[in-house]
Amino acid sequence: MQQNRAIELRGVSVTYGRGSRAVTALTEVNLDIAPGESVALVGANGAGKSTLTHVLLGILPPTTGTVRVTGTSPRQALANGAVGAMLQDTGLMRQITVGELVQLVCHLYGRGAASPPQLLAEVGLADLVRRRATRLSGGQRQRLKLALALAGQPRLLMLDEPTAALDPQARQAFWVSLRQRMADGATVLFTTHLLEEAQQFADRIVVIRSGAVIADGSADSLVSRGRTSVVGFRADAIEPTALTARLDQIRAEPAVREVRVEDGRIVLETSDVDATLAAVYASGLRPRDVQIVRPSLTDAVLDLIREET
């Protein structure tokens, strides 16, 4: 295993139970994340996202395979203070204020820990230091969990549905803070059902289905491997034989998947809009009233999740 990986998994599987009652939660997962990368983990409920997060945090040992986090075992990485985590099912201590809890966790990290006042200001809780943690709203609890995850100034952040309870304004503030951490070199792995969030803030998107990684790449690469774009336009009236010849020339462009005429409009399905438009002009047609419909990341991910194994 390479020492310069923030996360490295090889052949990781997790199985619960034995024999006929065995349930496989992860199957032969291989994953590399470089320092400084931001990676979104997406998939349907029950796909294995939380299980994978628990394996990376050392909460759940893999049945088979190897896991390295910042060059060591997950538990050692946590003990070293290299990892900060924000989980969905994390509880908060009772009978303690926001300020006391953040102060306590920063104190436990010792030297190198974040400054509690600065941390509270960063997550937008500076005005709630005297409020009991159990009396916070859902969004405020999420911000407090983020502060606790950041307390040790970790090099790696693992965030499970971090913005699920946040309103749009709080979500924007959350990512402003995370972007600064990323700019400073932190590695971020987060799970999310908000694909626009994954598209905007992740360098890579990992799609998991039924416990297996089925796609891994940038948002653009995932979109391009799925549905085609549609280019529609009108052209000046020409003799039918000449039109057929020009459409055949457009069909010869490798990116063009389909060519058809609908209600006087020429409709092209393509994997490369720019190359297709170049082919249209090269054919001699002069398009007008051009409309381009590109597939979305949501379309691409849903297609991947729905594909049969």
Percentage of residues assigned to helices: 25-40%
Task: Please state the overall shape, judged from the principal axes of the Cα atoms.
Answer: elongated
Number of strands: 13
Q: Supply the number of structural domains.
A: 2
- Please name the fourth-level CATH homologous superfamily of the largest domain: P-loop containing nucleotide triphosphate hydrolases
The CATH architecture of the largest domain comes to 3-Layer(aba) Sandwich
In what order do the strands lie side by side in the largest sheet?
Answer: 5-6-7-3-8-9
Per CATH, what is the topology of the largest domain? Answer: Rossmann fold
Give the helix/strand class. alpha/beta
Q: Give the mean pLDDT.
A: 91
- N/C terminus separation: 29 Å
Query: What is the ordering of alpha helices and beta strands?
Result: EEEHEHEHHHEHEHEEHEHEEHEH
Q: Report the sheet with the most strands, covering strand number, pairing sense and barrel closure.
A: 6 strands, mixed
Which regions are unreliable across 5 or more consecutive residues at pLDDT < 50?
none
Q: What is the C-alpha radius of gyration, as a whole number of Å?
A: 25 Å
In the CATH scheme, the class of the largest domain would be Alpha Beta
Strand content: 25-35%
- So how many helices? 11
